[in-house]
Amino acid sequence: xxxxxxxxxxxxxxxxxxxxxxxxxxxxxxxxxxxxxxxxxxxxxxxxxxxxxxxxxxxxxxxxxxxxxxxxxxxxxxxxxxxxxxxxxxxxxxxxxxxxxxxxxxxxxxxxxxxxxxxxxxxxxxxxxxxxxxxxxxxxxxxxxxxxxxxxxxxxxxxxxxxxxxxxxxxxxxxxxxxxxxxxxxxxxxxxxxxxxxxxxxxxxxxxxxxxxxxxxxxxxxxxxxxxxxxxxxxxxxxxxxxxxxxxxxxxxxxxxxxxxxxxxxxxxxxxxxxxxxxxxxxxxxxxxxxxxxxxxxxxxxxxxxxxxxxxxxxxxxxxxxxxxxxxxxxxxxxxxxxxxxxxxxxxxxxxxxxxxxxxxxxxxxxxxxxxxxxxxxxxxxxxxxxxxxxxxxxxxxxxxxxxxxxxxxxxxxxxxxxxxxxxxxxxxxxxxxxxxxxxxxxxxxxxxxxxxxxxxxxxxxxxxxxxxxxxxxxxxxxxxxxxxxxxxxxxx
Length: 493
Description:
Immunoglobulin-like, single chain
């Protein structure tokens, strides 16, 4: 078929998001959505390639790493990505995978990404023990023998090969998954053909059968917040949003630091890397199994919890505590990591990454080492006559932040009510917003020192941004980086 073409057509019925607590409407919506997905699968399968997934184990420590094949999977739905953009153009992740023809060496598909393992190897524990993480890469199914080539960013930010394996799609052990969770999938927002849209899948974790309506309402609420945020507000019609939450036996997810453990379907948990607010799942196989019943390019996991927390890894998934007083901020901020590979711009938190000395320009689009101010990566956006680096009330911000972080840690140790934590967050943000409003630098694009967990030597483009504090807006540099990813998934050259 021609690049970008897909035989999927709009079904004869419309799928609307269920409203409030109308159980009958919710069940009907699930039924119609399931029909739509099956319709998509049956009509597109004749011409669209299948979706292939390679599951593998990523094992090692701070010094060595190894990849081991788990399984090759054909997912139940046809490939829903943009066939007109087969090659990665963003180059933002720590890793890159390529699908290579073993005879010609021609690359058929490539995408950059990051991983939990890639973060874990930067913390102190990685110098003491080995760990394994289950990972996956997805791509349009190949018809003949191919090589999966895994590359890792090395010296000079170049990708260097770290694993190569030859795979045969005709192998009898290639696993065929069924759309076992299709009847739980609900359409939140539909714009058209998944092959030319960004398909975002919202996965609920820790929602019981009685809490399904609450999940769908929250999914709709957070989707609305995302599409009210620039640049997503300008590109709403480039997205489809789906939601799925297999019923959990227990409400909520695990929070080990408080002795709370839940057997949730997706396995999301607080305390990742022993950071109380970092929420991840290491049960990649369960997540992929559930997600495969819906078209998706990106995943955000909504946890049925109120305690502030979330996480986001480029090309893997993001998470957000759906019932937090800051759920909207968490949803958008963490999606910025997952969707566009944006770096955290804050640097006064208690994150324990062991970062190497700054010798190379960061690959993330929104931070810089400023080795060459005359050719800063966002030069075309710099406000005219703005000095680089750009001064800002850094000392005053840091003094306040140090005191705030100390108080935050103390309150978490005391396990205070979440309303009290939210009051602390509100007071902190009010101080920050006032400080920046009176600095005379509001709205400027320049190079403001402090970012990427480092107080010195790393610079962000704006004084404030949703990647820096709990504000509501992306800076211009982050917004541009987001739009480039949207284009990669929607434009047909």
